[in-house]
Amino acid sequence: MSTSAPSPGSSLHDILSSQQNALDDLIGVYEANGRPVPWFGAGASFAYGFPTWTGFLRGTPTDARTLAKVEKFMRAGKYEKAADLAYSAMGAAAFESRFRDTFCVDGSIPTGPTLLTQGIRLIDNLAVTTNYENVLPSRMEVAFGKAPRLFDVLDPDLVHAPTRPELSLWRLHGPANNFEQRVLRTREYDEKYGRRWFWQSGNSFTPLERYLNGLFPRRFIFLGCSLTNDRTMQAMEKWADAAQATTLSFAILEAPPTEDQVARNKFLSDRNIRPIYYPRGDHGVLPGLIGHIADRVEPMLQRAFGQMGRGFSIQSRLAKGEAKPVSTAMSPHLDLTHLFEEQSLHPSRSWVDVATCVDDFLTANPCDGDQRIDCAAHLSVAYHLGTRFPDSDKRRAQLVQRFGAKSETWSSLDGRSGPAWRIETAIVGTGDEWGIVVDSKVRGVEQAIAFLKTLPVIGNIIIVRPPDGDDGFVKGGQHANSIADSIVQAAKDNIPPTAYHRIKHVVVVGPWALAFSLGQKSMTLGRVQLYEYLVKDGQYVASLDSVRS
Fold first, then answer.
1. Packing angle between helix 512-519 and helix 379-387, nearest 10 degrees?
2. Which of 10, 56, 90, 222 is at a distance of 20 to 30 A from 70, taking alpha carbons?
3. Domain spanning 12-50+113-300 has what CATH number?
4. Which residues of 450-493 form beta strands (DSSP E)?
């Protein structure tokens, strides 16, 4: 179970290569339905402006001699002793005031994905944290559309949490604003973690050790944790002995100094923890590293708590060789394939018929809450669907984005961001209407531009495409939403007010989530004429008109 550490300055690719064996073991656990429980430490909240616990204690205003003793206790993993010393040196009122001012605040909101947002993607139904502040529960609510049920240190109902179909968070040290549940100083550790009192097969266990041993046959994956020899790790060692090395947990950890690596690996091995190391001091690689793991394992998660409320699926395209909808697992399901002949609209049907069927389906299946949507449909259908979930609506949509046999779940707040796309304009004719081309390099933007040039009503076009050097892929729901925002902003910035009310001719090439996100902004974008590309005919044809539909 020994793991070598990557060299300082290693790229993400190099890190993944050097940690390949450990990563393969982790993925194998998910493939075997092991579903490790994410365990978030103080490092997970650092990007939100909160200090690590060692950082907090080092910042306590005490004399140099006391601070040296605090450091000594922390190096030994005796954080409660360090807290006792700082508490005594500062006085109760001053210490508690500083604690509240540090942890009973909202924190800052970073841009882009973080260790925390990527780690949340690994949550199946349960997470654990030793953090005091409310960043994790609030971001879980944002990600899943519902607040997690919170368990304190030794809540008797916790025994059911691993198997209950409910989004849950075990706050091992309690919240910052509740001193009765908080675990900080030695007295609180003794009260909440408990002294040894439970006997089994001649061995004594503290309540915490018993909970770890009995409640969680599932593994953990530690994120943002330092994993020193504190009481939690001592309980993990006891749990590992009881598990007889059959339950392996994982940890994303900063690589130790070369001279300490053997001892570090032994410490972790004694607790049945397999490390996945990143270079010392290079904490910026963590969102990418954890995101890589999440990209591979998130489709395997069951998430039986139904995080987005009721779901539905819509299909208008048949997969190659299919004679029936690809997936009807999500109920209710709308099958629009009878309105089409392969990709083309049936000669006896109109796009108004398509929009009417979608609207009638949504009316017959109302839902005031958030929705999970699986859409294997034309981009025009996805756009129209987005208009029914506008940004002004408080409902949130979670989108099942398929890539062949694989799928990912996207939302506008999923933390999957990407680079800003280029905005260009071009004069293509003498008409007084505008065209908008959005192309993710699936076909290349030139064909769409050439098509719009054939429309005599168009005089100018806005071109939205990936930056040079980018792979052209939309990275996730947040990226799709930001691209859609930039499209609307480009229209507002470039189309004269006297022409803004006219039809905008829009060609979108990309994942259906991008068309859906653009549809969500239709109130600002205004009247739109959409076009579909028919692969069989190699040409674009007019589809939905947002006013007529």
1. 30
2. 222
3. 3.40.50
4. 458-465
